[in-house]
Structures are given as structure tokens and as C-alpha cells.
Amino acid sequence: MRTATAVLMGAGLLSCLSGPAASLGDTPAAQVLDEVVVTSDRTGPGMWHVHHGNSQAWILGSMSPLPKDITWRSKQVDQVLTGTNEVLIQKPFEIGIARILWLLITEHNLLMVRGGKRLVDVLPANLHARFAAQRAKYTDDAAKWERFRPLVATAFLQQAAFHHVGLSTRVDLGAAMRVLAKKHGVPIEEIKIAGVRDVIDALKNLPPATENTCVEASLATIETDLPRLVERAQAWANGNVERIEKLPEPKEVDACRAALDAGSGAADLIARIRQTWFDAIEKRLQNGRVTVAVVNIDLLLEHGGLLDELRARGYEVDAP
Fold first, then answer.
1. How are the residues of the chain apportioned to helix, strand and coil, as percentages rounded to the nearest 5?
2. 297 with 61: CB under 8 angstroms?
3. Backbone region of residue 48 per phi and psi (left: phi > 0; alpha: psi in -120 to 50; beta: other values)
4. Which secondary-structure segment (H or E) carries 20?
5. Are 49 and 151 in contact (CB under 8 A)?
6. Pairing relation of β-strands 55-62 and 47-52?
7. Which of 4, 74, 184, 262 could form an S-S bond across to 44 if both were Cys, CB 3.0 to 4.6 Å?
8. What pLDDT is attached to residue 292?
9. Radius of gyration of the chain (CA)
10. 135/41 Cα distance (integer angstroms)
């Protein structure tokens, strides 16, 4: 899928580690260089309309990262919700301090570099040199994140880089949809896509070579791809799906995706996410209901993704 691996697997980890990890050295506040604000004057993200007979599903494509101070409004969503039976959103990660501490104790060897070594000891020299060069741009601590395994350390670095350009992986469009649904009195169903344990299990089965390939993808994103991600966020805010599809990803991201697809663990997790969303939406379509769903836009746009599967099952799909 199109989402960078460090975002996919790191999002759950960072949500777990953000509290305790702070004790290992907080990222200093960085200047926000760009900001996208979605207001009523903007088109806003459009919705795909899936239908067959009286059955309808309106799908809003969410995106990560997005501007961290974004204000989102959509007249289309307000209008659709007036005749909607149910809203589907992803169940958020829910984890308390006790669970965080338990994970850090029981999965210490999985999240951190083992045997008393540091990142510089386990990451190939060329990748660590690139990591260190980017780390120097976003923190004054030359040892920051050295105790984390490569994928986790790079996820923290990527988060710092996103913050520097005003982007965040923590912008929750599902929460905004929840507020709108409550305003219209529409029931909300939370779809459990994956939990912290699923991410941990995927990491357990990740071969070192695949991890390094995906670390390189994250580093390429940080080094050269931030302007594209900012432009992608702007295209999302303006409802320009065609522009989103035409923005090319770094070749390293494709290499990471290919490495994941060739193995298990992470590939199984991604496949399960796809299937869970397809089953949830098709179930509502078969029951003749009108449903609104918030789904990651990469799951929608990828070749053979959710929209292609729905078309293959005979549903009409109208683009935004």
C-alpha cells in the first residue's frame, strides 16, 4: 500500500511510547514552516459514493500525515449525514500507563536494540550516517533514539520531521466525524482494525533485511519527500484526488512495500486491515442501509484496493 511503513507500523508504537519515551529525551519545539487550514471556503475532501439499488455507502478518505492545526469542514458530509443510518470509523488505539509499562518490560527486546548495543551498532553504516544527518536537523541530542531498534528510531525521527513542517500523524479525522455524527443523531460503529498487539506481532516477524529496506524508505521520505507530503495534504484539503494520485512516491517506498509483501507478519496485518474494511462496508450494503465510512485514502486508491474490490463485486463506485 502507499502509506510509508514507518507510519503504518510506527503509528501504534508511537502512541504507546509517547509517554515513557519522553523520559529518553523530548523533541524540542520546532518552527512550523507550512500550515493548511480547511475552512468552509475550501472544497474539502470529497466522498466516494458506492451504491447498488437502494444500498449506499459514502466513503471519506482520511490521510496521514495532515497539518497538525487543521480545521476541517465539509458541507457534503453534513448533507449526507442527514439521511444516513450509521457511521463507521476506525476504533482508536486505547492504552493506559499500566499497559505501556507492561509492554516496555515484556517487549523490551523487541522495541529496543538488544544486548546493550545501540543503533549505530546494528544499522548499516550508510543508513546510520543518513539517520544521524537528519537527526542533527531536528534535535541537538546526538544520541537521541540510539537505544531504539531501527524501525522505531526512524519512526520517531520521521515524526520530528513532520512536526517541523507542520504535519502530524495524530490528526484524527474519525474524531471529527464522530462529532458530526452526534450532531445529526447518527449511530456510530467503531471498526477494530488492529491493536497494539497486532503491531507488536508484526514486528516480531519482520526480517532485519526488510526492516533496513523500510528504514531506508523512511529516511528517503525525510530527506526529499516532505514537500510532496505537504502538497498531498493541500490536495486533500482542496478535494483534488487526481492530484493525490499523480504525486509520485520515492522508489524506496515501493521497495519497502515489495519487501513487506514478500514476507509475512506486516503483510498479513495489511491484508487483514483491507479485508476488515471490505467486510464491514459490504455487510451494510447488503442490508440496504445508507452508511458513511472514514477509511484511509491509501486503502481506497491502491491498485486492487477497497474501491477495486467493491467494483469487482458489482457495486457502482462514483468518484468525488
1. 55, 10, 35
2. yes
3. beta
4. helix 5-21
5. no
6. antiparallel
7. 74
8. 95
9. 20
10. 38
Structural contact between residues 2 and 298, judged by C-beta atoms closer than 8 angstroms:
yes
Largest CA distance in the chain: 62
Output the nine-digit C-alpha cell for 208.
532485519
Taking alpha carbons only, the member of 6, 11, 10 closest to residue 172 is 11
**pLDDT given at position 8:** 45
Report the pLDDT value the prediction gives residue 196, as an integer from 0 to 100.
63
Helix (H) or strand (E) holding 268: helix 266-286
Gap between the Cα atoms of 308 and 304, Å rounded = 5
Question: What is the value of pTM for the model shown?
Answer: 0.79
pLDDT at 2 (0 to 100): 44
10-residue averages of pLDDT along the chain (320 residues)? 42 41 35 38 74 92 83 79 92 56 60 89 97 96 94 92 88 84 93 72 82 93 93 86 88 85 68 88 91 91 90 93
Say how many Å lie between the first and final Cα of the chain, rounded: 21
Contact 69, 37 (CB under 8 A): yes
**Residue whose entry in the numeric block shows the C-alpha cell 464491514:** 280
- Compute the distance between CA of residue 18 and CA of residue 100 in angstroms, rounded to an integer: 9
What separation in angstroms does the CA of 244 have from each of 230, 234, 279?
11, 9, 26
